[in-house]
Amino acid sequence: MLSHTEAHPLKTKQITMDEAARYFSDGMSLMVGGFGGVGAPPGLVQLILDQEIKDITMISNDTGFPWIGPGKLITEKRVTSLIASHIGSNPEAGKQMHEGTLAVEFVPQGTLAEQIRAGGMGLGGVLVDVGLGTVVETGKEKVRLKEKEYMIAPALTADVSIVYACKADTYGNLMFDKSARNTNPLVAMAGTITIAEVDEIVPVGTLDPECIVTSGVFVDYIVQSKGVDWKWVWELKQGT
C-alpha cells in the first residue's frame, strides 16, 4: 500500500479506478460509508472484489444486504474482522459469525459514529456509559469523571476509507445526496487514505461553499462513478 509520500503529486485529486486499485491490499483495514447499502461506493467495493483483496478488517455502520453495499465483501468472504452496529440485514454475515470465520464486534450506532469522528479529529477516544453493568463492559477501560463512571471507547481509523458523494470539485470538496450522506462525512475524516467515488466532478470554485459538507482537506483521491440506481436498490431490499 502506498503512503502519501510515495504517491506522486497531482494537479487534481481525480484518478482512474485502475489507479485507485494500488491503495488496496490484503490485510488492510477498510472503513466504508453508507447505511443499509445506500451511500456506499459501489464502484470501489466492486474494485476491491475484482482485485481479489482478502483478510480485510472492515469498519462500517452495517453489512448492507448480501449483494448491496459492503455486504458484497462479506458474501464473497473477503472480510475476516468486522466492527459494525448491526448485521441483521445480511444473513451471510450472521452465518459466517456463527461458523467462526468472521469476527464481529458490535458497537451501538451512536457510539460507533462518535468513535469514527474521534478518529478523524485526532482524539484518543470518547467516554460512554451505554452498556455499563452489562456484558458490554467486559474488558473495557473505565474512568471516573465528576463522580460518574464511563467506559473508554477508543477512536477508530482505517488504512483506507471509501465514501460516496453526488458531487465534488477536483480538490475533493464533497456534496451528498440527501440521506445518502449518512456516515460518509465521518468516514471520510478517519482514513489514512480517503477515496471518494463521485457522480459528478466539477472544477474548483464552481461549488457553492454553503453546500459543501466534507472539505477536500480530508479527501486524498476522487474517482468517477458509473452511478447506481437507488430505486433498484430499494426494490431489491424490499424483495420486489
TrEMBL record:
SMART domains: CoA_trans
Annotated keywords: Transferase
SUPFAM superfamilies: NagB/RpiA/CoA transferase-like
InterPro entries: 3-oxoacid_CoA-transf_A, CoA_trans_fam_I, CoA_transf_BS, NagB/RpiA_transferase-like
An MF annotation (GO) of this entry: CoA-transferase activity
One Pfam entry name: CoA_trans
Superkingdom of source: Bacteria
Family that this chain belongs to: Belongs to the 3-oxoacid CoA-transferase subunit A family.
Protein's name in the database: Acetate CoA-transferase subunit A
Organism for this UniProt entry: Fictibacillus macauensis ZFHKF-1
